[in-house]
Design a protein that fits this description.
alpha+beta; 10 helices; 4-stranded mixed β-sheet
Length: about 240
């Protein structure tokens, strides 16, 4: 059994998709990031960066294995199951490149754009929003070029490279981006969207998501974190 620490966001969907595709049994444990669950000491022991998703794998010899960071989780699970990763060293090298690209480029840049679109005070983030909108568009172009003549990011096979990149493309429209200039990417997005495991993943915990925008206290909790504030919320003291 796998404990899956999750909240319904694009980063959470990445791992939910893979768990569903692998048909691995898991127990979903909500991490309400608006209420500060990510600062609880028991969660920080699993995910020291106070971010979800994270997992704890109990289906191992010896002590349960915690894994944090979405790219590491997906690599760990794909290797454990022997699926959705290329077999050869060159293919695995390419899979690692695209996982690193996603967690170092597409994900953080899209996340910053989401902040300025959804949470920044009105008029306070015009420069930031424009900058990250351009960077997000650049990342869409990277995927568009990669998918030229390919059905999937790594070629003929659907892999964790597709699963990890897809959630932040799914929400392009709410981020203010149009996919019309990216026909290869649009087709790829739609192919993945039709997969039953993907549909279940996007629906996972949908009832947990709060409809209203965060209030001032939650906004401060989410977006004004420092080393000291995290330490105080987790109950640590000097």
């Amino acid at each position: 059994m796998i404990d899956f620490y999750y909240w319904p966001t694009p980063n959470g969907w990445k791992v939910a998709i893979l768990l569903g595709e692998l048909e691995l049994p898991y127990r979903m444990i909500p991490v309400n990031i608006g209420k500060g669950d990510q600062f609880r000491p028991e969660f920080l022991a699993i995910s020291p960066n106070n971010r979800m998703p994270a997992i704890v794998d109990h289906d191992v010899e010896g002590d349960p294995v915690p894994v944090f960071e979405s790219g590491a989780i997906m690599w760990y699970l794909a290797e454990k199951a022997g699926r959705f990763l290329p077999a050869g060293p060159l293919g695995r090298k390419q899979a690692m490149e695209w996982l690193f690209w996603q967690v170092g480029n597409q994900g953080p840049l899209a996340g910053q754009l989401s902040h300025f679109v959804n949470y920044a005070p009105e008029g306070a983030g015009d420069y930031g929003r424009a900058r990250y909108a351009r960077e997000y568009d650049r990342c869409l172009g990277v995927l568009e070029r990669r998918l030229e003549g390919r059905e999937w990011i790594l070629g003929d096979d659907y892999t964790i490279a597709d699963m990890i990149c897809w959630p932040w493309v799914l929400i392009a429209k709410p981020l203010g981006a149009a996919l019309d200039p990216f026909p290869n990417l649009s087709s790829w997005r739609n192919r993945i969207k039709l997969r039953p495991a993907v549909q279940r993943a996007v629906d996972l915990g949908k009832e947990l998501r709060r409809k209203a925008p965060p209030d001032d206290a939650e906004r401060k909790l989410l977006f004004e974190q420092t080393a000291i504030s995290v330490r105080r919320r987790s109950g640590d003291s000097d």
